TrEMBL record:
CC terms in the record's Gene Ontology section: ribosome
InterPro entries in alphabetical order: Ribosomal_uS7, Ribosomal_uS7_bac/org-type, Ribosomal_uS7_dom, Ribosomal_uS7_dom_sf
Domain Small ribosomal subunit protein uS7: 2-149
A Pfam family assignment: Ribosomal_S7
SUPFAM superfamilies (alphabetical): Ribosomal protein S7 (SSF47973)
Leader peptide range in chain numbering: none
Statement: the UniProt record of this protein carries the keyword Heme: no
UniProt name for this protein: Small ribosomal subunit protein uS7
Function (record text): One of the primary rRNA binding proteins, it binds directly to 16S rRNA where it nucleates assembly of the head domain of the 30S subunit. Is located at the subunit interface close to the decoding center, probably blocks exit of the E-site tRNA.
Length: 156
């Protein structure tokens, strides 16, 4: 990380179908090796599958899933006097979103043996209902922060 000046945040253009920046960020998170068209096919296919399975508007289900995944607190390591402490800190909004998208992608990829469209759609549906690996990751992060609440005064 540069000490001279802050990293510039790039402006992400909204996606062509839903005109939504969060959808474009999710497509970018899914993308591998710069293959954006493949990532778009995966994401839009997953949303179509979500709509056929739930019968609800897919963008609303996706947003609800993201809101269920977004963490409010996380722990950061801080070294003080030879000991390393896990200090709970609040998460900024843009980091909340990026963590949620990353966890959604990672836990969808970790599901076994089917196409990525099926795995992603199942993870979105589970997250919107408060289940799934990504929601469990958020709950584990909360538990870790709760367990280390005693070190909150060491915040910098």
């Amino acid at each position: 990380m540069s000490r001279k000046n802050r990293a510039q945040t790039r402006e992400v253009l909204p996606d062509p179908i839903f005109q939504d920046v969060v959808v474009a960020k999710c497509v970018n998170a899914i993308m591998k090796d710069g293959k954006k068209s493949v990532a778009e096919k995966i994401f839009y296919g997953a949303l179509q599958r979500v709509e056929s399975k739930t019968g609800e508007e897919p963008l609303k289900v996706f947003k609800k899933a993201l809101s269920n995944i977004k963490p409010a607190v996380e722990v950061k390591s801080r070294r003080i006097g030879g000991a390393t402490y896990q200090i709970p800190v609040e998460v900024r909004n843009n980091r909340r979103q990026s963590l949620a998208l990353r966890w959604l992608r990672d836990y969808a990829r970790a599901r076994g043996g089917r196409t990525m469209v099926e795995k992603l759609s199942d993870e979105i549906i589970d997250a919107s209902q408060g289940r799934g690996g990504a929601v469990k990751k958020r709950e584990d992060t909360y538990k870790m922060a709760e367990a280390n609440k005693a070190f909150a005064h060491l915040k910098w």
